[in-house]
Amino acid sequence: MTRLFATILASLATISAIQADPKPAAVFGDHMVLQQGMPVVVWGTATPGEKVTVSFRTKEASATADDKGSWSLKLDTMMADQKQAPSEFKVAGTEKSVVFKDVLVGEVWLCAGQSNMQWNINQSDAREDAAEANFPLIRHRAHNGQWTICDPKTVGNFTAVGFYFARSIYQTKVVPVGLLNNAIGGTRIEPWMSPASATEYLSNRPEDAKINFSNLYKSHTEPLKPYAMRGMLWYQGESNGGEGETYYHKLRGLVSGMRYAWGQGDFSFYNVQLPNFTGDTNKPEGGDGFSKIREAEAKALDIKNSGMAVIIDVGEARDIHPKNKKDVGERLARWALVKDYAMKDIAHCSPMLKEMKIDGSKARVSFNHVEGGLIVGKKTGRSPVAEDKEGKLKRFAIAGEDKKWVWADAVIEGDSVVVSSPDVAKPVAVRYAYSANPDGANLYSKSGLPAAPFRTDDWASAPLPPKKK
Fold first, then answer.
1. Could you tell me which residues are beta bridge partners of residue 138?
2. DSSP 3-state helix, strand, coil percentages of the chain (rounded to 5)?
3. What's the whole-model pTM score?
4. Beta carbons within 8 Å of 272's beta carbon, 6+ residues apart
5. C-alpha 303, offset from chain centre
6. Residues 63, 22: Cα–Cα separation, whole Å
7. What's the number of domains the chain is made of?
8. Helices 195-204 & 245-262 angle (0-180, nearest 10)
9. Do 274 and 407 sit in the same domain of this protein?
10. How high is the pLDDT of residue 259?
11. Which structural domain range is residue 36 located in?
């Protein structure tokens, strides 16, 4: 009996010791980057009623685990150290502690979406960049993985879009950058929406109730909440590629739900508009493939603190996973450098439709964001855009009241493009690059950013039937 009693006491002591071990959320670990300039939320589990203290550099805060063993606290705002020296991050319970090493303070970005965000450096056209990727202050964490320091041996598993984004931020601001990779190939937007966003969306679209909303939010995004971050990069839409207006509403729901869950206000949201893909139908009316979802993505620029990278010039007709992720990440970084890091001398937004005015047989289309002016451009591989001084604008279409579209002549005049056709005496509408693969679309700003596809009408793609006499 005495031996049995001693065994029971030993077992209870072991259980007690296990329970007393504080456990921070899985997102915390060695080599992590903490967000500068805002309070850092730290959370985890411990024995109910146990006091947990977190200390990092000169900051310290404590919390008591609730009756379910959960605890949460905030460390006061920190700034990236000029020396960028790593420090230990300690989570101490009553009897045991957890210490994470090589922790930095800098900029944290969530990289979310489907396969083109998940696509890593090894899968991309990035061999030379990978060989030179000695960036110990850039860190990457895959879902349910460990934080990894960026070097030529590890960078192959980094999200490629995220790497090029982080490299641009680091090389410009010389600040540590942490990437939270939260992307899964082949996924639609609905599983990434929070339950609250899904409920609101379905109240207006009950016919979509058959779609499995929020499961990836619960399994992949919620465990990261509310790890302090500067913003979110989103590259998704291929699996929703046949949509238009509905995707716009889902995108707004996704962002509002994330911002509410994080409680950081309107953090930055930068979206990748889908690239050119599939064969060129060469039809002036367009409206096929990804054209309508690109339109929805552009409309979503009405989301506060949002931006969009236009990439209709770097896709591949036969591959939904274009290998050039450099231009994608760097175009996203332009938005962050201007909007988040106050770099005012960088052009960040592609030329966007401003308005159309009809002047007799011609339509004059003007644009916003034409820093330096408009050009006929030429993009070859990963090389910078070059001005094609002898080239002519392509992929402009024009229509009259009969809604019959024809390819148009288009000429740059200042910050505008004058569009016309001898087949349309009285134009009423213009479209540009409004197709799945607008092969040859070549309107750029002098800063090297492609003009976003647009249409000035809201018609269906097909012309109206002839009027009865």
1. 177
2. 25, 30, 45
3. 0.93
4. 113, 116, 117, 161, 233, 234, 235, 308, 309, 311, 328, 332
5. 13
6. 11
7. 3
8. 150
9. no
10. 97
11. 24-106
